[in-house]
Amino acid sequence: MRAFRHLSLSDALGIGLILCVAVFSLLLLVAPSIIVVMISFDTRAFVSFPPEGFTLRWYAEVFEQGELVDAMLNSLQVGLTVTLLCILLGVPTALACARGRFRGTTALSVFVLVPHMVPGIVLGVAVLFAGALVGVSPSIWLQSVAITVFILAVMVRTVQSRLVRLDPALEEAAANLRATPFQSLRTVTFPLLMPAILAGAVFTFVEGFDNLSVAIFTHGFRDRPLPVELLALVQYTSSPLVAAVSGVQIVLAIAALVAVSLSIGLDNVND
Fold first, then answer.
1. Model's pTM, two decimal places?
2. Which residues 6+ apart lie within 8 Å of 152 measured at CB?
3. 186 and 239 Cβ atoms separated by less than 8 Å
4. Are 132 and 196 in contact (CB under 8 A)?
5. Whose CB among 58, 113, 188, 264 lies 3.0–4.6 Å from 195's, allowing a Cys bridge?
6. What does the alpha-carbon distance between residue 56 and residue 83 come to, in Å, rounded to a whole number?
7. Where are the domains of the chain?
8. Which protein family is it in (predicted)?
9. pLDDT in tens, 40-56
């Protein structure tokens, strides 16, 4: 409070305005999720707000319906596959962009960003048509590849931002100690990159699990992921079951962020 006493009226008003905008923006981001979670515990058989009671009936029903459980398992498989592909492709690409000594590193970095800038619907349709041309039908694998192309930039940028902050003298010291480039990469660079790789893996898993815009065009008829199943569920029911499914996805996203925070800390993602 003492610091605010020395501010002019215009500065105090400016800081107050910024705080109000920040609080309002936070409410816009958080309030919808809170409302959905509250509705998921309602005792009534239709969506209404505010809820009249508290029950876990709808969460129990989520895990009793075979279609929803299968959709969760499909999304889990897609999320894990996307995460693995993003690690295998994204980490070497980030190394090439940040440490590469060849012409075109900037072009490579921009090229990786292009699919992420394209709307997911457009990319999903493009992958669907491309798969049809080569005889690949919609499936979990086509969906995983499409989502990987869409969000690979997340892994690349996360790892690359960590790389540019690493002191090159550490790798030079390893080379002076007669370490080969591979030994230097394995013993020096990778351990220092691990926080960024883990953070990128969490973000790509959540996106692969929850993606709808790409998955809706590339999933198979018998392996629908959870977001697509939820979209179909909304079309023929208005029960809090929809909110319960959404609550499960919200809990998964929060758990992923908590895991990153407890393991490496959110402040260390790009340090």
1. 0.78
2. 85, 86, 89, 90, 93, 112, 115, 116
3. no
4. no
5. 264
6. 32
7. 2-39, 58-268
8. Belongs to the binding-protein-dependent transport system permease family.
9. 777 777 777 777 777 77
